[in-house]
């Protein structure tokens, strides 16, 4: 049995339609701020001065000059192909330089204006820093250098499609400019879910950059309604997360298209970890690795056990109401005012003040699945925690269900990377840019 908070969900810029109470939908996001790739000209030699020989006279006539010939250029096929029509606004510019060469510059223009963008680190394509415009003509000029030093150049003009009618809703659980706990995953949400065969293409357009650099990976939940991004370990305190979910116009196999790009840049704060042991009925709290406080708890009784696993604080309410009158068991139906509530699962597990169970805390489990603490301890925790702080519960009768909250950290790294739609290098993937 789980509690339900009798309040509507606060929505950030984004989906606004998901029914699970207490979640935050931020503006959905790429992983890095993108800058225009340099648009240099072909290298040229300085003019050479020709003379007739002998020492120059001070009153000699102006000398004739001839420019050295420019290096010959080879044709370079560019994608999209020249003349292509109805391209998605998520289109990237690609070119394969023969002989293992590399693309050096990409210039994309429309109506006399240059479009900002950046090459992927692997050189596979150039990604515009914002969605292209619907129903617009673009010209791409790509220059590359072959392994043998040859210069390659190609040009392509193409047009984008009209704005589609059928789109997917999307959301990003990250607010721009906020500070989060070390276990805050990047959470992308989709409605309807992304079909399994489309997840690799979608994942390739979800960019995350960390400063200082830390490897990471995406993990899809069954049904494709959510994907998490995390590192092998908790984020380093002080990390900056820059995210872009570049999904506007991305085509899916079900005939839908991504509705918008979402971006956010957020900070990771100090390390604050809560660990609960059912055997001892105690919570230990560590701040930056040092033991800060130990407190007695009461967990869920056998009929309504607490979940074992690593959860994340998703929402904080200084005062709220638990309303369980829709529960099928009459013994579990009640309406109770609650102080210092911190949501851990969508199913209704919280850390909260429970003055009625203070005599049981540290001795026996009497809750409906929540972590009960005294009012004094609940007040202290509430003042210290932030969204994204982890709590690990061990030794209960129930295992945390994937997707019941932000469950990215409840899996080992080896288990976690199995949920990626793309291969994950050993130790985790780096940024795309």
From TrEMBL:
Residues 272-394 form the L,D-TPase catalytic domain. The keyword Transmembrane helix does not apply. GO terms for biological process: cell wall organization; peptidoglycan-protein cross-linking; regulation of cell shape. One of its GO terms (molecular function) is acyltransferase activity. Coiled coil: none annotated. Pathway: Cell wall biogenesis; peptidoglycan biosynthesis. The active site is at 352 (proton donor/acceptor), 370 (nucleophile). Residues 45-97 are annotated as: Disordered. InterPro entries: Big_10, LD-transpeptidase, LD_TPept_cat_dom, Transpep_catalytic_dom. Keywords: Acyltransferase, Cell shape, Cell wall biogenesis/degradation, Lipoprotein, Peptidoglycan synthesis, Transferase. It comes from the Bacteria. Gene3D superfamilies: 2.60.40.3710, 2.60.40.3780, L,D-transpeptidase catalytic domain-like. Residues 49-71 have a biased composition (Low complexity). PROSITE patterns: LD_TPASE. One of its GO terms (cellular component) is extracellular region. This is Lipoprotein-anchoring transpeptidase ErfK/SrfK.
